[in-house]
Amino acid sequence: MMQVYAINDDNIKTIKLRKKAIMNQTKVITHKPLLLCSLTVAMALTGCATTSPTPEKNDPWIGWNHGAQSFNDNIDKAILKPVAKGYQWVTPTLVNEGVTNFFSNIQDIGVTINDLLQFKLNQSSLDASRLLVNSTVGVAGFMDVAKLVDLPKHKEDFGQTLSVWGVTSGNYLVLPFFGPSNPRDALGIVGDALFNPLTYVSAFGTTAIGAAIAGSKAVDVVDRRANLMTTEKIIDEGSVNRYDFIRDSYLQNRDFLIHDGNSSQDVDLLDDNADEKSKPSKSMPATQNKDSSSKPAINSNKAKHTLELKAPK
């Protein structure tokens, strides 16, 4: 059994136009920063930018930043990544999730405080309820019971609070050991440390308690690094320029968080896509007029391209 499909030049042009429109739509979807996670060194990987800003304008400290990123990468490859792999290998999934939930519950203290400082009263009540539920029913936060009762996790930090207060971000800055940042978010790291109760327990407790807190923070770092092994592959395999990819992802992610998901970059991308989709439509009526005035495509005098598909035996 054999089927024959005749495709003329006009049909080929139409197919190409449709394919271009689909690719433009896909481009917008893949560049929306939906993945909101950060590495231990504050890597934000939600997507890459469609067009990178001019480095001289957006990244005047590029020389320092390249050096700091190389330093962080060397530390990660030599120490953090091997330890994280070992931790991931020896730790059961249930324990790994429990450790992640425990430190996430402690972070909810700072999240709730930042909610109040940003005058998000409704969200602060939700986050306070989440903290209470997980700290009690969730056994000190080792189980995330709150998500079962529709109390989602929010991401608020003091850097976002400073933005709400009108503090500008400043230039892109890579910090040793911390990774992608800017002057405002660097100050935010200090503020978040002051909101963390473990900071005061470590500072005013005994030497043994201080050592225990330091050990718990080390576990937190290793746990977060282990949870992002897959994300690292996306950076290494999906980016042409690793430095630009990390920088643009960080800037987009911070913009997304500060505006609570209403990033202006998404609107720009959608507008660009609408403009591109409107361009082919101008030439479509002429093509349709030709088709309507001519004979059916299979009987046209124009050159044809014939594709034969044979059914397998």
Quick synopsis:
The protein is globular, with a radius of gyration of 26 Å. Helix 1 (9-31) packs antiparallel against helix 12, helix 6 crosses helix 7 (183-195) and helix 8 (197-204) packs antiparallel against helix 9.
Describe what this molecule looks like in 3D:
This protein has helices at residues 9-31, 55-58, 62-90, 93-117, 121-136, 158-164, 183-195, 197-204, 207-226, 229-238, 242-258, 264-293, and strands at residues 2-8, 173-175, 179-181, 304-310. The chain has 313 residues and is mainly alpha-helical. The protein folds into 2 domains: 2-28 and 279-310, no CATH class; 61-227, no CATH class. The protein has a two-stranded antiparallel sheet with strand order 1-4. The protein has a two-stranded antiparallel ribbon with strand order 2-3. Strand 2 (173-175) and strand 3 (179-181) form a beta hairpin. The longest helix is centred in the C-terminal third of the chain and has 30 residues, at 264-293. The N and C termini lie close together (9 Å).
